[in-house]
Every structure is written in structure tokens, then in C-alpha cells.
Request: fold
Amino acid sequence: MTNAISGFSKLSKAEKISWITKNYFNGDQKSSKLLQTYWNSDEQLQQLHDEFIENTISNYYLPLGVAPNFMINGQNYTIPMAIEESSVVAAASKAAKYWSARGGFKTTVLNTKKVGQVHFTYTGDKEVLTSFFQDILPIVYKEVQHITTNMEKRGGGILDIELRDKTQDIPHYYQLHCTFNTLDAMGANFINSCLEQFAKTLEERFEGDTRFRESKDKLNIIMSILSNYVPECIVRAEVSCPVNDLSERNIEGKEFAEKFVQAIRIAEVEPYRAVTHNKGIMNGVDAVILATGNDFRAVEAGIHAYAARNGSYSSLTGATIENDIFTFWIELPLALGTVGGLTKLHPLVKWCLQLLQNPSAQELMQIVAVAGLAQNFAAVKSLTTTGIQQGHMKMHLMNILNQHSATAQEKKAAVEHFKTTPVTHSAAVTFIENLRK
Ligand code: MEV
Reply:
């Protein structure tokens, strides 16, 4: 057992590493060397990364790949993807090319409202609170002006502040349910600052109000925080084409489309399938969210809540065949930013946004939705035709070879060999062992 340490955060990076090495790696210097291998030789760049978080000891790499040939609303994109899972980027690229030959992706932003709430308790009469709230509303707006002025100048700001009675759920529980337009910013800081100011005004005005001063009624602010659930910040992406255009060497377009629609129906009604189905969508979504410096935890939480909005966890995509036209779409709640946060700070994030032609937040929402839809198309297409393992194991081959420290020559021979032979873990290992005999 290792003793607890106090003042760890005050130690230098070298001291932190030395404490960890001594206490968790039996003083083995190889473990601290490994951390150093991942430091950047450019000290300024390393310092920038060190300062993103606390107690930084090294960098944790993820591969950054790109998927070209995405045609979105008639414009061509190469999409950056930061992800560790093999086959995801290949699948995205394949789907992009497939649909660019069939009219490309069409996208629309349906709404961009973001939400934040002040949660509080109030023990008195609801009617009195309601009239008090109406009276102080102009003051609430006035006292938050120092935070909202700049956002308003650019066309955003507070959209609405509503008093909600939640006493059915918890005794005395009320909220200010607030909506915002934060333009190209994800808006977390803006929203949280506004909410904390609303709470302050609410509390101060309550204390000074004659309606409450002489009564026993109490108002208690519990917390003020944005919501990562954004069902009114929605983007839709879609592909569609005549079913005949889906025909391939070994399958008729109509048969493929019907099987595909059936697979989507299963993900709509069966949560066990829906979770895996949506996980495949998130392969694409998260990879672009990470590459563009957005908060994938917020996006994940919001999207899965949305997938369960009707009371049962369901597919994020839908598909139909109508009049021999196959249509496949996705609707995603996405609160994203292309300014603020890491967007100007992290050099690779900046580069990825440049690659995407410096999109607005709304444009980025569309690109991310397309990445999710493409990923789902590729997965469901494989699942309903060849099965997933064939393609996946081909891509995974390099990981198996690396696990067995294959040389460049061995890798070349293995890739050649498995062009015509199915890849399995044991087949790949046997192949290397035979080569080395
Ligand atoms: C693997 O990362 C993702 C899939 O399982 C998605 C799916 O089943 O639709 C292939």
C-alpha cells in the first residue's frame, strides 16, 4: 500500500514522476523514461500541453487520421478524425466515396438553442413567487448585461428565462429554465456566468422584497449550471438515392435496401442493438469532436439522453424506402464551438479546423452529423452483407503484427499474404511464427 501524499500538486513535474515511480513502479527508471519519451522536444509546445490540465506528467497520443471525399451540400470536405480504433477512418472514407457518387450528404441545422438552469427551493405560495418573478425579470436582464453585451452585439444572448414549478417531483423545488444562443461558442462559460448572475439577482431581490421579508418563506439557491441535454440544438443529415443505385456485384439494390431498413428498425425497437448501433455512430462523431477540440463527454451525454427521449433507448438514425427511393438520415443534438475553448490554443485543433475551412459552429454540427451517419452506413452495410469481421480484422492486422513486434519486412509479407486469406488473430500469429522459423 502506498501512503497518501499531501501537496502533490505543488511538486515539479520531475518530482511528481519520481514520487509515482518510487511508489507504484518499484523505482524502475524505465517507467519514468517511458513518460519522457512522449514529451515534446519543443519546450514551449510541451508547456502549452502541460498547462491544459493539472498534474500533467506526459502526453497521451491518439492517432489523427483524415477521411477525404465527403460531399456535404455540394461542397467537398476532408474530415479529421482523432481515434484509436482501427477500421473507423477506413469505413468513413469508404462511405464518403460511396455517397459522393450518389448525390452526397444533405444537411440542415434545425435549431441552436442551448439550455441552463438555476435550481432552487422556495417554501411559500406559488402565486406570490410567480408575480415576484414577473416583477424582477427586467432587473434580472439588466443585472446580467455586463456578461451579455458582447454576445448580444454579435447577435446571440439570452433567448428566454422561464420559472418552472417542479414541486411535483421534489417538494419546494423550482427552477429558472433558461435558453441561450451562443453563436459559434460552445457557450459553457457564458451560460454558467449568466446563470450565476441570475441566481444572485434572484436571491438578493428576494431578501429585499416586502412580500417575503416579513414571512417565514425561504428561497434557497441549490445550484446554477448549463445542461448538456440540448434537444433543441439539433442537426439533421441525410443521404438518399433510387434503390437501384445501391446494386452491387453480389446484391440487388432493392434487396440490400430492404435488409438495411430492417436493421435500422431493429435498432429502433431493441435497446441491446440500439446501444451498439449508436456506438458505431459515436465512432464517427467523437473522432471529429476530439479532432476539433470539442467536449466529447458533453456530446456523448447529450446524445444518449436524446436517444432515450421517448422512454426507451433507440436508434439515432432512421431509414425508409418510398417509391423506390432509399433515404437514410440522422438527427443529433450537438452543442459545439468553433471559437473559444481549445480551438485557438491547441495547434492541432486549429489545424483541423483549418482543414475544415474554418467552419462556423453550425457548419461543424453538420460535418459531425455526417461523420456519424457515414459511420453508421458503413457499419450496417457490412453487418447486413459481408459481416463486420472481414473488414475489421484486415484493418486490425497491423495491431496484431505490432503486438508481436513484427519487422517492416514481416509486415509487408503478412499484408501480402492476408490479401487473399481471412485474417484471424491465430492465423496472423501462426504466419509470423512460420516466417521466423
Ligand atoms: C464497432 O466499433 C462498431 C460497430 O459495432 C457498430 C455497429 O454494430 O453498428 C460495428
